[in-house]
Design goal:
The chain has about 350 residues and is an alpha+beta fold. The protein is about 30% helix and about 20% strand.
Length: about 350
Amino acid sequence: NYNSRHVALEIAYFGWEYRGFASQKHVQDTIEHHLFDALRRTRLIHPKAQPEDLGYGRCGRTDKGVSALGQVVNLHLRSKAKKGSCALPAEEEMDYMKMINKALPEDVRIIGWADVEDGFHARFKAKARRYKYYFVASANLDLAMMAKAARYFEGEHDFRNFCRMDALNVHSFTRHIRSCKICPVSEVCSTMDEGPLYYIDVSGSSFLWHQVRCMAAVLFMVGLHQERPEIVKDLLDVDLYPRKPQYKMAPDIPLQLFSCDFDRLRFHCSRQAREAAIFHVENSVNIQRIKLQEMRSLLSKLRGFDTSHTDMRNARHIPLGQRPTEKSYEERCLQIHCKSMRRKS
């Protein structure tokens, strides 16, 4: 008896305790699973509806532990308008944000919704994605050298040495990075000796699997004077480095999908829904402040109020150019072809 409405939802979530954003078989602990569960419970979609039935699309696919401030998805939701009637103005429509947030987990929030045309797909309509990777700037981290290295990422390059390669599904590793810089977190002040907070701010049209975390890992090596800033330029040269040196990518928790940019997409948020979201987040912040103070108290006790603790992080570094390498893209493709031929025979 009701129309459906094609909308985009802007979603914020803390992904620390989840197995990633996208749904997975036999796994319930994903953001997408909880989103669709909330949509069914609020009857905004049919109980048996699948994502493909709703014209569903997502802008980004964040991995396990990664958070987002501006993830965007699109799908058809039930509208208050009767069948055959025109679309209602936003202020007369169901308060999607308020309804869905009541059914979502505490660390997942809808922060706005927007009307979109029928052909809209969040992944393909996005003009850019922006990520932030947070870190504590310890005294032995050279931020100027990190900033110099970060600038080498800007422009169009082959990033096969800065990702987890999926040769079966990805055949082009060229991506365009609009900007990559090192920025201070101005609104946070440390009260002990942890050091100030900074973040790697990187934006581009699209990204490869684990690309930002690999970029961050190499920037930290540069910041610790384990590598020269020019190592970034060298690794972007696939003739010089046809195979990726083996190195551990940066941890997942500090990474945040900060925003997804679209042309002419205006998100709606009712005053009541916004006030409820603000109250919810303020309460969560206070809880985290208490937890942080408890951890700081333990840290002070362990140190015996002696700040001259031993730095355990100076392990021997093997230069990237001297490390064992992973298989090249061509070697991976050949391996996939050989396996396929063996199965056919």
